[in-house]
Each structure stands twice: as C-alpha cells, then as structure tokens.
C-alpha cells in the first residue's frame, strides 16, 4: 500500500471509530468488513479450526463493540486490534489447556480439539517437558513451581529461600531457553508451542 493510500485508509478508519463510539451500527459493520479477514487469519494460525476461528473472530469484534466508547482514545487501531485479538485467542487456548490437561473430557472439548490437534498439543506438551529437563536445576525448580504448580513469585522465593528478583531472573532464563529449545526441535508448530508455553500451568 502506497504512503498516500495508507494515509487515506487511516483517515477512513479514524472516522469509522468516531462513528462507532457514538453507537453507529453501519460504521461498525464497515469496520468489521474491512478487518474480518485479517483477524480470522490470525485466529486460524492459532487454532487451525475454521469453526473455532470464526467464533473467536466474532468475539474479537464483539469486544470492540462492547467497549466502543474507548475507540476515541485509540491512536493506532491496527495495534489495538492485534492486542484485543491476541488476548482473546490466548485466553481461549488457556481454557483448552486447562481442560483436563489437554484431554477431551466433554462433548464440547471434543469439538474444540480435533484428534490430530489433540495429538499435536500432546507432542508439544511433551517437548516442553523435555526442554524443562534440559534446564539448570535452579531454572527447573523455578519453572516447575511457577508454571506447573501455579505458585506466585513470592511463594517461590519463600520456598527456595531466594529473593523475588532472583526468581524473576531464573524464570526469564528458563522461558528463553525453552523458546530456543522449541524452535530447534519443532519449527513447524513454533507459534503453537510458544502459546502453549505461555499458558502452561500444570504438569
């Protein structure tokens, strides 16, 4: 897109945002039509399921409509849209992971995870555990207490008899090492692995 076209597009979006903030439904419909494909593609990257991606895309725009009064404060709508969609997608994935340790236990979870997706997430989960085994002893302990047992940094510091700052340091090192490990061993599903790593909270 040329610079002049970008400027015109930005002006059009800003005008729509002002109209939407006033509750103008047609303006909202125009905004949805303008950005639907982008958000949907983003969702498909995460969940790899058309139906779920479609539902999540609807949720993203519903969230924007619900908080439309705030749109007048938005300087860069593309950045705002990305943040809203990312947060909803990660929240959805966290709920999936929290559901019986990635095992489908209900009819709903079975529709949420197709068999091949279940296998992929199990493989990624197993890969992360192997990566944890490769960490230094202190990084392992911090990661397991924080991400698998759900302890706060304060609780970890008390348990390990170290400072909270040291806990943060070892957690940062552990997460960075695991990102590198996932990248080296599973580049095909790197994004899904990183999201799983972010959301992981049980062993």
Automatic annotation (TrEMBL):
Signal peptide extent: none
Domain of life (superkingdom): Bacteria
Every RNA polymerase sigma factor 70 region 4 type domain range: 128-176
Record keywords, A-Z: Sigma factor, Transcription, Transcription regulation
Pfam families: Sigma70_r2 (PF04542), Sigma70_r4_2 (PF08281)
InterPro entries per UniProt: RNA_pol_sigma-70-like (IPR039425), RNA_pol_sigma-70_dom (IPR014284), RNA_pol_sigma70_r2 (IPR007627), RNA_pol_sigma70_r4_t2 (IPR013249), RNA_pol_sigma_r2 (IPR013325), RNA_pol_sigma_r3/r4-like (IPR013324), WH-like_DNA-bd_sf (IPR036388)
Chain ranges of the RNA polymerase sigma-70 region domain: 31-96
Family: Belongs to the sigma-70 factor family. ECF subfamily.
Protein name (database record): Sigma-70 family RNA polymerase sigma factor
Record organism: Pinibacter soli
